[in-house]
Amino acid sequence: MSSKLQALNEWVDQVATQTRASRIHWCDGSDAENERLIAEMLDSGDLEKLNPDTHPDCYLHRSDPDDVARVEHLTFVCTERKEDAGPNNNWMAPAEAHALMNGLFAGCMEGRTLYVVPYCMGPIDSPLSRCGVEITDSPYVVANMRLMTRMGSAALTRIERDGTFVKGLHSTGELDPDRRYIMHFPEELSIQSFGSGYGGNALLGKKCHALRIASYQARTEGWLAEHMLIVGIENPEGEVRYIAGAFPSACGKTNLAMLIPPAAYREAGWKVWTVGDDICWLHPGEDGRLWAINPEAGFFGVAPGTSAKTNPNAMAMLDRETIFTNVAVTDDNQPWWEGLDDRVPAKDWRGRDFDPGQGPAAHPNSRFTVSISRCPSYSDQAENPDGVPIDAILFGGRRATLAPLVLEAEDWVHGVLLGAGMASETTAAATGQVGVVRRDPMAMKPFCGYNFGDYWAHWLDVGSRLTRPPKIFQVNWFRRDAEGRFIWPGFADNMRVLEWVLGRCRGELSARETAVGRLPEQGGINLAGLSSAPDMASLLEVDHDDWIEELQAIDKHLSNYGDGVPKALKDVLGSVQSRIRPG
Ligand code: OXD
Ligand code: MN
Are the beta carbons of 272 and 491 closer than 8 angstroms? Predict the structure, then answer.
């Protein structure tokens, strides 16, 4: 097979020659193709079949133990000018990066099949969607791309019509961490990834295309590509309003995106609809509002902590047609992870007999890949080619102290400052130390394909074109008490905060003005039906001394990005600083 697009055929031929691939397979995305690939992976040991009675069509992949997360230190943005990548990215000159990658790819597919994977990010007929082609030698990547994107013939037809596509080249190589690089060439709209099979490094439609390359494209085209969930909240009157929320990896985006409201809310008629859990493309509409699509078609979610209590919707979709990566298994071969239930697993994520002395049974970054269409709360607007209109944007981090449960920005510019100043404790989604507070502006530190200074200027520019901009809020579900326990119950009860947020958007609720932004009035968060009232005073406190330090830290953080930081952002920081007094 080949395509009607000469540029695509030439590129495939050139890669096949360079990598000395033994076979070429153009993926059509069909069920028959998927069944063949699964059968091959069961044969090769890439996949194991899970219990077919409890989990039909579910498989387990055990990765190389050194290949379990994104590798930010090996991820580069290769622009001609270093300052275009900015201090937020590792940078390499394109010529140097190409020379390095050409060396790695030379002959790497000898004896292997080269898969050509056409995919579309976003509804197939949406003008807001963008396409790409990933060439990979990993059947596991193909099977995951089929769940995570609109992959196959329909995408190829669109690519042939559009005439343009992002070129992604991937090989697992020898999975050697010393020969592993994830390179982005935004000026060429291309990606090259070598030496890893892990989702964020290898499913190139996701972080590499839909965030790093797309954020760069979005800047030139006047939109935003963000690390955000999209959720619709239906009130008892049947009106649905949409919220987009940026949270760093493994901070509960998936749970929030498919939240089931607490009983009292359900009885009153509140419902939650899932549009997306990780990535959001935001376009200014002709009506002056911001419209969102989810470019993905599936979830690549963190398994540990997912349970009937924390995310019943996820549990309802994970018992069929799911690929699990690096989870543990029970003695009857069901997938298992920490936080699921109190059964004792038989084998850990490496396939060893489970021994608690050897660490957790499931890898802390073990994952499930499943089609979004299996989600019980999947929104009937998720496939709308125009997207959904956004009323509120949330910026959330994992902060044990300082950040209140919810804080409303005064306006768009102040909201952009809240996003730019975001900080969060690191998680297992990336290699490196866990639990260290780092600045993670808009949850995009690992994903923004260009200089943060230019990115914030672009956010301000997009805002200035909106006559009905969303309201912006900072949220924090992770505040802890002196004993280290979470103060806010979180999960389903986050609905209480969303109700306040939407009440503010509709102009129905008043707020308490503070030096750092607007907070709920006393009693402003609905606690009806909670078995014990959380310490709201702590959750909604604004400690001036702590905030003075925080604002100084934000000032220092912004100054790392030099002259590119928009003056309007520094001005609003200065005005917040001038309002806040010690004590
Ligand atoms: C993810 C991540 O996989 O952010 O979504 O790491
Ligand atoms: Mn993510």
Answer: no
